[in-house]
Amino acid sequence: KNHEKQAMSSTWRRALLALAICARTQAFVPQAARSPRPKTTNALSPVDIVPVAKGLATVPTLYALMSINEYFTHRYYQHAEFNKSPWLQRLARWVFAPLGKDVPTIRGGGHVEHHAETLDDMTLKTDDKWRSSPAALSLDADPYRGTAFTWQVSVYMTLQMLPSVLPIFMLGFGYSLATTLAVLLPAMLAHALVWNSLHPAMHALPDVPLADGAPSSLLARFRDSAYFRFLYTNHQGHHIVGGRANYNVCLPGADHLFGTYVPESEWQPKASTTYETHHGVDLSVEEQISNHIARELGKEELVAA
Questions:
Q1: In sequence order, what E strands does 157-245 have?
Q2: In this structure, what is the dihedral angle of CA atoms 216, 218, 220, 226, given to the nearest 10 degrees?
Q3: What pLDDT sits at residue 214?
């Protein structure tokens, strides 16, 4: 028994000596080399919050810029209000005067004629008297009669976004050029897809194929959704009030910001003209689209002849 006690005592002494040596050695290990203690808190530091906040702000910021771009393009270019805007005229003179040039007059790219062709129910005038008028003839070169985003228009809309998006995203958010374009370009494509699936169809015109622009077919299934129905109603109001309000077509917001939004309750009582009241016959939208396609084919046959 004494032998066993001595052996056990010796074992304990060796164990305590080893622990003492380990503790002593650890005291001389540099702080950076020691295993980090696990964090006991889940709270985000200020360094962690910045990228999260930046990411959350990216989408609404881009949406706001796109809504304003759509608004300004529609109001001041397509409706040619640039020609009557005092502050835009002053800005233009500041730009063009040093170049020795006069401020150009905006024509609107056929959009004013598109309004003249559109009835209050969003269908188009197709009678011979109208189709032989100078306004109607000016739209004949375009099979979508000024309603679609061709690839060329999509490029122009994207270029218009760069003066606002690049400084805000690169200087404000700290994104690289590649990241900024990786966010902007898909968003602009989505805008064109919504526009082409909505705008030609609401005016009884055929869908836009991939060869001409962002294809209407990709989002055509959503035409009966609440979002598309709101856009349709909002744009109908734009036509009924003579193009003086509700300038946003696909991206609502800027009209509310600039005080040009008119609710349906105010413009609906002003609606009067329909396809039937103008032409004396009622045709379904499908029949109107078929007639339009037949007219376009007839024009091609005349050109070929």
A1: none
A2: -120
A3: 98
Can you read off the two tokens belonging to residue 286?
């499908």
* Tokens describing residue 95: 């730009």
Structure tokens at 52: 């999260």
The helices-and-strands tally (H runs, E runs) of the chain is 13, 0
Unique residue bearing structure tokens 């066993």 = 4
Q: How far apart are CA 246 and CA 70, in angstroms?
A: 11
* Model confidence pLDDT, tens digit, residues 74-122: 999 999 999 999 999 999 999 999 999 999 998 888 999 999 999 999 9
Taking the mean position of all CA atoms in its chain, how far away is CA 106? 24
Where do runs of H (alpha helix) occur along 139-273? Answer: 151-166, 177-202, 226-240, 254-258, 264-267
């045709």: which residue's tokens?
283
How far apart are alpha carbons 155 and 146 in whole angstroms? 16
Give the global pTM: 0.79
Q: What angle do CA 87, 249, 64 make, to 5 degrees?
A: 65
- The β-bridge partners of 124 are 118
Q: Which H or E run includes 9?
A: helix 2-27
Q: 65 vs 3, 56, 108, CA distance in Å?
A: 89, 15, 22
Q: Which two structure tokens, joined as six digits, stand for 233?
A: 């109603």
- What integer pLDDT is reported at residue 305 of this predicted model? 41
Predicted local distance difference test score (pLDDT) of residue 54: 78
Q: What is the pLDDT of residues 246-266, one digit of tens each?
A: 999 999 999 999 999 999 999
